[in-house]
Amino acid sequence: MTDWQTYYNQHLSRPPRPLLVKAVSFCKNKDIALDLGAGTLIESKFLLDSGFKKVVALDSSPEIENFAKQLNDERLEVLVNPYQDMVLSPESFDLITASYALPFYGPKGFKEFIEKLISSLKSGGVFTGQLFGNRDGWNINGKNLAFQTIDEAKDLLKDLKVELFKEEEKDGTVASGEAKHWHVFHFVGIK
Ligand SMILES: C[S@@+](CC[C@H](N)C(=O)[O-])C[C@H]1O[C@@H](n2cnc3c(N)ncnc32)[C@H](O)[C@@H]1O
């Protein structure tokens, strides 16, 4: 069991993320999608239900395999891997979704990671997810996550046609119930 179990317990039966639902409306092709940091696979299931012929779900937590067993869908390929070990071919995906998942790559090499993801999108492919802002409550020493200012976040997406970019800043909680200040950039971009 990983540290994510409390989070997963809270994300077993929620609806798919509204941002992804919107992003899918921009997809012209639905051959193959990548769900990064896929967690409980709710977004992967939504993509399959939306007509994607294949979904690759990647997460470093082995729990993802149990969620995949429950889905039991041969169109789903599950990879238990850290982002850092991903092998991505250029121009491969019609959609990449990374729902609250990208910042966990960490700050080192984050820009190159995003560039690699964008290069693995087909022309017309859709990239969606969240980046964490510099005023996020986790942006403290010792948290090995990637944070951006609004200008840095926009710069990471500069090679895409950005259809949606929304800054959200609020006091809230995390899965454990602990208080947290959230500063998040939600985006949908098209290559
Ligand atoms: C906040 S959860 C988001 C899960 C899901 N996308 C959602 O929206 O509910 C972040 C996920 O990223 C995964 N993760 C964190 N660091 C990772 C890494 N370096 N490589 C792959 N997956 C990672 C975690 O295991 C976790 O499932």
Describe what you observe in this structure.
With 191 residues, this protein is an alpha/beta fold. It has a single domain, classed as Vaccinia Virus protein VP39 (Rossmann fold, 3-Layer(aba) Sandwich), CATH 3.40.50.150. The protein contains six helices and eight strands, in the order ααβαβαββαββαββ. The termini are far apart. It binds S-adenosylmethionine (SAM). S-adenosylmethionine binds at residues 4, 7, 11, 37-39, 43, 59-61, 82-83, 99-101, 104-105. S-adenosylmethionine (SAM) is lined by residues 4, 7, 11, 37-39, 43, 59-61, 82-83, 99-101, 104-105.
Blueprint of the fold:
Blueprint (H helix, E strand, L loop, with lengths): L4 H6 L7 H7 L7 E5 L5 H8 L4 E6 L3 H9 L4 E5 L12 E6 L11 H10 L1 E13 L13 E2 L1 H7 L4 E13 L5 E12 L1
Parallel strand pairs: 1-2, 1-4, 2-3, 4-5, 5-6
Antiparallel strand pairs: 5-8, 7-8
The structure holds S-adenosylmethionine (SAM).
The ligands found in this model are: S-adenosylmethionine
Indicate the mean pLDDT: 96
Number of strands: 8
CATH top level is Alpha Beta
Q: What is the tally of helical segments?
A: 6
Query: Helices and strands, in N-to-C order?
Result: HHEHEHEEHEEHEE
Cα distance spanning the termini:
37 Å
Structural class: alpha/beta
Question: Which segments are poorly predicted (pLDDT under 50) over 5 or more consecutive residues?
Answer: none
The tally of structural domains comes to: 1
The CATH topology: Rossmann fold
Q: What's the architecture, going by CATH?
A: 3-Layer(aba) Sandwich
